[in-house]
Amino acid sequence: MAGDHAHHLRGVGADAGRARQDHGQALIDAGFRRFIGQNRRLRHEAAAPMIPRAEAVPARPVA
Fold it and tell me: Distance (Å, rounded) from C-alpha 36 to C-alpha 29?
């Protein structure tokens, strides 16, 4: 009885750890997806201002 109970708790712990790991990976995937979407949107909105700024940097005299 006590042995079965300990085994049951161990099994639940392993399942909980696995579920926690899967959930963490899902959160990481969602975070990367959100970051990529934000990055794409920001790049699209900032493409026009960024191009002249990037061209102006090498035009400065380097002393």
Answer: 10
Q: Residue 54: which of 44, 46, 42 has the closest Cα?
A: 46
pLDDT band at residue 33 using 50, 70 and 90 as cut-offs: confident
| Residues across the chain | 63
Per residue in 34-46, is it b (16+ CB within 10 Å) or e — as a string?
eeeeeeeeeeeee
Radius of gyration of the chain (CA): 26
Report pTM: 0.26
